Amino acid sequence: MTTRSALAQAQRSDVEAKPIQAGLLGAGTVGSGTFKVLRRNQEEIRRRAGRGIEITMVSRRNVVAARALVGDGVRVVADAREVIANPEIDIVIELIGGTGIARTLVMEAIAAGKHVVTANKALLAVHGTEIFAAARDKGVMVAFEGAVAGGIPIIKALREGLTANRIEWIAGIVNGTTNFILSEMRAKGLAFDVVLKQAQRLGYAEADPTFDIEGVDAAHKTTLMSAIAFGIPVQFNRAHVEGITELQAADITYAEQLGYRIKLLGITKRTAQGIELRVHPTLVPATRLIANVEGAMNAVLVQADAVGTTMYYGKGAGAEPTASAVVADLVDITRLHTADPEQRVPHLAFQPDALAATPILPMSQVVTAFYLRLQVADQAGVLARITGILAEPGISIDALLQRPNSGGGAKTDVIILTHDTVEGRMDEAIAQMQALPTVLAPIVRIRKEELS
Questions:
Q1: Which of 281, 290, 314, 349 could form a disulfide with 159 if both were Cys (CB 3.0 to 4.6 A apart)?
Q2: Could you tell me if 302 and 331 lie in one domain?
Q3: Where on the phi/psi map is residue 88: left (φ > 0), alpha (ψ -120 to 50), or beta?
Q4: Which domain covers residue 433, as residue numbers?
């Protein structure tokens, strides 16, 4: 062995013998879970990482609560900037959440030459381009497995496991709150408002559930998956976002009768015209595995050219499931801590100078199928006029149901499933149908995906 190689090996052994030190910003639900998992499995983690990983400093406004969590041997401070300023800290774990102070602290940590681990999907979906560029300039890593689908390792699958593939589309249930609500509505025939209150009592929904039920949380996560899958910049502002607040129990029942279930899906597809990036309630055939994901569980389907369809299923939230992803990121960074930055996996899977400027399609150009429910006057000629309006732009009908309206009287519900069509054409057809005097209520429109 040469003198130079022996010296290099000795230096590497010294580094490996010393545990890497991490500082934790935010010791709430996920922060406490991360601390517990790391401490409980420290020997197994050391064997995997090649050296120990220790959280030696924690910041939380409630210092007393943080000290009760971490015990002796860990420094607890109220000011997160003290963690960033500590030269002994190699990795900063940001679990504060939001896009305000969290963004400032992450950028300051990067500027200080610290690696960053975060589970903050909102931060990366909105400011990811800026954050990843800053990290690249400083030669540090930003790891974010916990930001999407909790404990499911979907980011690693997209960034590394499916590298050989040209990914065609992703469809995911990535918000447990909305999936729980939809599961309960289907199983018990309850209204949305009733199930939401139940979800809040059980702790599945926040006191202010807006981000969940309006689809924003799912859109943050889908935006990140889209960027990694297709090698495009993070573009949350171009995502189409719809929630589940307008869904009615009647539509869930009718969908079931037609062989479908309604799920809030995050969908991103590669097309010849551009990338689709959308979140909305979706009819999915009841025979699909993802249609049978119930309760607060998450699942992501990925369609790729070489491997075909793969599905990733598990807990999408919670202290220890998300902590599992955070600790996995800590292990990855520890393994690559001394590696040449050019040899690390790029943040968005593709080399930064190879990101494509592929456009995100407006919804008017998206091609999909539809479920329509029209409340109409129960009289001759109404159905013919409706089907005629659909036929004019070439929208073909896949299935049709006619059911008595639950409100009684001389009116009926007409439920139509269409084949694929351009959404802009459907918008025009719905406007024409809505203008008919025999259409007695706002038309319900839900998109349908076969996912085959």
A1: 349
A2: no
A3: alpha
A4: 367-448
My answer on whether 126 and 30 are in the same domain is: yes
- Indicate if 221 belongs to the active site: yes
Given phi > 0 = left and psi -120 to 50 = alpha, else beta, which region is 191? beta
Q: How far apart are CA 141 and CA 250, in angstroms?
A: 48
Average pLDDT over residues 321-335: 96
Select which of 221, 263, 269, 448 is catalytic: 221
If one counts the domains in the chain, the total is 3
Residue 359 lies in a domain: no
- Give the tens place of pLDDT for each residue, 159-186: 999 999 999 999 999 999 999 999 999 9
Pairing of strands 53-59, 20-25: parallel
Mean pLDDT of 253-272: 97
Res. 13 pLDDT band, cuts 50 70 90: low
Distance CA 106, CA 443 (A): 46
The DSSP call for residue 410 is S
Domain at 52, CATH number: 3.40.50.720
**Which DSSP letter does residue 432 get?**
H
